[in-house]
Amino acid sequence: MNLEKTITTTSGLKYVDIQEGSGVYPKTGQFVSVHYIGTLENGKKFDSSYDRNQPFSFKIGIGQVIKGWEEGVSSMKVGGQRKLIIPPALGYGSRGAGSVIPPNAVLVFDIELLDIE
Hints:
The chain is mainly β. It is built from two helices and seven strands. The chain has a single domain (3-116), classed as Chitinase A, domain 3.
């Protein structure tokens, strides 16, 4: 990952565009379909839609996913690939997520935006 191209937003989300997509950005209320790999900061994988061979779909802007995904995916275009580095405040915070994501974990997601509906 080329850290020189890392963008940090005012919320603390960091991202690097691996591949820029084309077309329009998703709007609030639209469904997006993504493939992703989620890892902890130490590189340990905790989830992957590729492993299930099933893209994940969610509606933008209504709180179905963590804040880091909302912000990071909303500025992607179809075909885009992005690495999101999500601070705990935009992820699962001090509660973590079950036994998979510890409290206050920084999350790293490699996301590909497949479709906007």
